[in-house]
Fold each of these.
Amino acid sequence: MSEMTLDQPAANRSLFFRRWLRNPLQMGSIIPSSPALCRKIAAAVERGPEEYVLELGAGTGVISAALLAAGVPAHKLIVVEIVPEMADFLRGSLPGVTVICGDAFDLANTLPAEVHGRIGTAICGIPLVLLPLERQAAFRDTVESVAPGRGFLLYTYCATSPLPYRRLGMTARRMAFTLANLPPASVWRYRPAPPQPIAALHPT
Ligand SMILES: C[S@@+](CC[C@H](N)C(=O)[O-])C[C@H]1O[C@@H](n2cnc3c(N)ncnc32)[C@H](O)[C@@H]1O
């Protein structure tokens, strides 16, 4: 079996595929991220000792498992998944991890108050590239409401930035790329852009 599908239990892939048949836009992919991509995402995580990692759109938990393998303590990992069947699957397969069945666009209400402002890295699994600019901006804002200044990691199959980051008032940096995913994928980090000096806004 290839690196693309290695280590992914059949249950993972079958649940994922069934959900894709139900709602392809919500899933954004027909199979879970590959182990190679999951490791690249885990390697891009920044976290202080007391900070949490927040994974949004966890699916069947392949990235969550890579985060744990990379050393994120289970009690510092919070995953949010909107599909109840997938959230149940995550609860059964990720002991010690906080699994929240909820909407990643409403983080101020979805996350417990004690983690607000204590998130080192947010990871977005939601297919933002398929959404209109207003929804992308809403996602930016909801992350900012619980993780001010941190931005988020986004994995994507696009060759260039999947988000129009300047229009969203963000900076973008491609952190990693792997051919070992179907299709090949990149990991991007988006952060709120620093405020522009007034002279730059009104050049003379
Ligand atoms: C591309 S899959 C990623 C799954 C997994 N992280 C992976 O890499 O294999 C997108 C996931 O986001 C979930 N999702 C979509 N919209 C969501 C939302 N508004 N809030 C939380 N989860 C959402 C879907 O149900 C799906 O599990």
Note: Residues 1-6 have pLDDT under 50 and may be disordered.
Amino acid sequence: MSRINSAGPRPGDVLSHAEMCMVEGKMLQQGMNFGAGKGYSIVLMSQRKGAPYPDRLAADGTALLYVGHDAYGHPHKGTVDQPLATLFGTLTQNGLFFQAAESYRQSGIPHLVRVYEKIRAGVWVFNGLFELTDASMESDGKRRVCVFELRITSRSFDDATLPTQPQPSRLIPSEVKVKVFRRDHGKCRRCGATTDLHFDHILPYSKGGSSTNPDNIQLLCQRHNLEKRDRIE
Ligand SMILES: [Zn+2]
């Protein structure tokens, strides 16, 4: 935990579920957690095998398209539209994120979202800080689902309540992270450490390195990642 300083996790950091909850100061179980952080929401992504309509990356690699949640406890939840409100008229998590996207359209001030992604059992990656820039309902063939556009933020924040780190300019796709973690056996490539790991671009994106080719991504522990970064900068 020592690596996660007051500025919060860095995009690409690998965390256990317990570490993620410690970083955010709360138990995280649901995928969508509107307003759960200080000045931001928290979204958990995971590889849902066989999902007809999975979360995906926008073609340019700068945004995530996150699918909303099904009606809780509904017996045929895969066939009914994803709800924006409950039977009692209160907004669901879908509804709250929808409202925030609507407010962005009017005010130009985006709602901020931290995204964590589960790449295998017990292994989570911090994907970074995003702006909620759009929300829509789309058909998945059987029913209508909510799709939220989360764009990597390029703003810098002065707000002390919102610790943040430099954001990546391009996201590493889920399947690339899964492949790299497996190939590197969940260990730092330099020293074999299995804790404080980070997904590292061998050639940085800013220098023309790919985010989508597993050959350009490796697992490094924090020490070796920072050593390397200091050499490059
Ligand atoms: Zn190492």
Note: Residues 93-107 form the longest helix (15 residues).
